[in-house]
Amino acid sequence: MKVKLSTKEEELMGILWRVQRSSLKEIVELLPEPQPAMTTVATMLKRLIDKKAIAYDKEGKSRIYYPLIKQEEYSSHSLHQMIDHVFQGSTARFASFFTRRMGLSDKELRELRDIIDEQLDQE
Predict the structure, then answer these.
(1) Among residues 36, 1, 29, 33, which one has the least CA distance to residue 15?
(2) What integer pLDDT is reported at residue 1 of this predicted model?
(3) Predicted confidence band of residue 3 (pLDDT cuts 50, 70, 90)
(4) CB-based contacts of 112: which residues, under 8 Å, 6+ apart?
(5) Residues sharing a CB contact under 8 Å with residue 58, sequence separation 6 or more, in sequence order
(6) Of 62, 61, 76, nearest to 3 (Cα)?
(7) Which pLDDT score, from 0 to 100, does residue 102 have?
(8) How confident is the model over 118-122, as a mean pLDDT?
(9) What is the model's pLDDT at position 123?
(10) SS (H, E, C) the chain
C-alpha cells in the first residue's frame, strides 16, 4: 500500500472507518467545530477517490462514500514508514522511545509487557 494521506484526509478516513458508509452531509456533521464548508470536504473526498482510498455508491441524488483501504493496513504501513524514517528502521529504538517518552502508566506498561510475552509464547 502506497497511499499517503494528509492529516485532514486521515481525519475524513477516520470518520469513514468508524461509520463505514456516509454521505457528504453526514461526514461534515461528524467533523469537529469549526466545520469546513461542504465544498472543501467534497474536494478532499475527490482527492481520496483519486488516491483510491475511498469510493462511493449513488443512492438517489446522493453519493454514499465508503473506505477501500482498511484502517489496520493503513496504520501498519504508516507506522512502518515512521519507524524506517525516524528510527532508522529499528523497532527496538521505537519501542524504547515509546515506553520512555510517552508517559505511560504502570498499567499500560504491564499491558505492553503482557502483549510481548504473548508474542514470545506463540513462537
Answers:
(1) 29
(2) 66
(3) confident
(4) 99, 104
(5) 64
(6) 76
(7) 87
(8) 90
(9) 76
(10) CCCCCCHHHHHHHHHHHHHCCEEHHHHHHHCCCCCCCHHHHHHHHHHHHHCCCEEEEEECCEEEEEECCCHHHHHHHHHHHHHHHHCCCCHHHHHHHHHHHCCCCHHHHHHHHHHHHHHHHHC
Count other C-beta atoms under 10 Å from residue 91's C-beta.
11
Q: List the strands of the sheet with 54-59, edge to edge.
A: 22-23, 62-67, 54-59
Number of residues in the chain: 123
How would residue 2 be classed by pLDDT, with cut points 50, 70 and 90? Answer: confident
Q: Which three cell numbers stand for residue 77?
A: 504501513
Write down the domain spans for the chain.
Answer: 7-67, 71-122
Domain topology for 7-67 = Arc Repressor Mutant, subunit A (1.10.10)
Taking only the tens place, the pLDDT of each residue in 4-24 is 899 999 999 999 999 999 999
Peptide bond between residue 32 and the one before it cis (omega within 30 degrees of 0):
no
